[in-house]
Amino acid sequence: MDRNLLITGAAGYIGGSILADFITRTTGPFSRANISAAVRSEAQVESLANLGINVVLVDLSDEASVTEVVLRNEIDIVLHTASSHDPNVASYLIKALGQRRKATGNETFFVHTSGSTAFAPEAGWPSGEMKDTDPIFETEKQLAANHPIRLTDIQVIEEGKTQGVTTLIVVAPAVYGRGTGQCKNMSIAFPIFIRSSIKDKLVHQFDKNGNPAAVHISDMTALYGLLVEKILQEEAIPNGEKGYYFAVAHKVYCWDLMQGFAERLHLLGLVAEPKTRTWPSDEMAAESLGVPPFIARVMGTHSTELVPVNAYEVGWRPHWNEKMLLESLGQEIQDVLEVDNIKVAS
């Protein structure tokens, strides 16, 4: 049976890379999938128009528009990469899938992209190792405390139960590497630090060495591919309250990352020293990075002890590791220079 798949955020970094990967899969389970891409501007429609897929312009904050798109295009599976922190958008999409399920009698699926910063001790999460097979949902409900990512995860699972929609939550850590989408190809995790360093002519680090989780964009898209393959093949996989998938390939020490940026930026003449300095205060860091002080500190110091079990049980085998990440920092810098049109003297 053919299934109709909608990717939200299809012009973004993660969503665009997933889309680029999926449209190359012309055999096997994906041969039975009809792909639609949701975007938010006419310019994005034009950018994706040559891919041979159904591109839909939709305001995801408008429930009526979301419902119309899902029902008119007979969507059975939604991969939601557009927002990890808006419960309303997730709810609108799941409600529409619920209507689709009632109309056809067929199972519908909502695969949500969450974020690992909600699972850091600095954000109130319990310290210590946690597997994606542990009672994550119960812990999120206890600690929601107006944290938008946790509140959205809770909404996804509870609305899925109400509507009879099968839900899965992919928890994304720091994602890096050159994307393959039509619009945004640059990683989200590291450019903030690179741009701040170029602006300040110095690379700074915090007084605490964080150890966050990370994953290369190609490994991230591979996990989504595996999950959708299982869905298309009608295989039973963990879902609902047990359907968390930690997309953690490896971890990285923040001080090693910043030192790597310092050495490479100095070779390019973009910073004054091939070594890091410590931020004098969180407020100065926040001003340079362009985020609130609390967010700046979490970005630069948080550690997560997230262990992927469900992800591996569906067959995920990430290729990239910390060593490969540190060796690729030059490309992360080049991507920023290219996008920002910064010329470097040869």
UniProtKB/TrEMBL annotation:
InterPro entries in the record: Epimerase_deHydtase (IPR001509), NAD(P)-bd_dom_sf (IPR036291), NAD(P)-dependent_oxidoreduct (IPR051783)
Signal sequence, renumbered to the chain: none
Record GO terms (molecular function): aldehyde dehydrogenase (NAD+) activity
Any Gene Ontology CC annotation: cytoplasm
Domain of life: Eukaryota
SUPFAM superfamilies linked to this entry: NAD(P)-binding Rossmann-fold domains
Positions of the NAD-dependent epimerase/dehydratase domain: 6-229
This protein's name: NAD-dependent epimerase/dehydratase domain-containing protein
Species per Swiss-Prot/TrEMBL record: Cylindrodendrum hubeiense
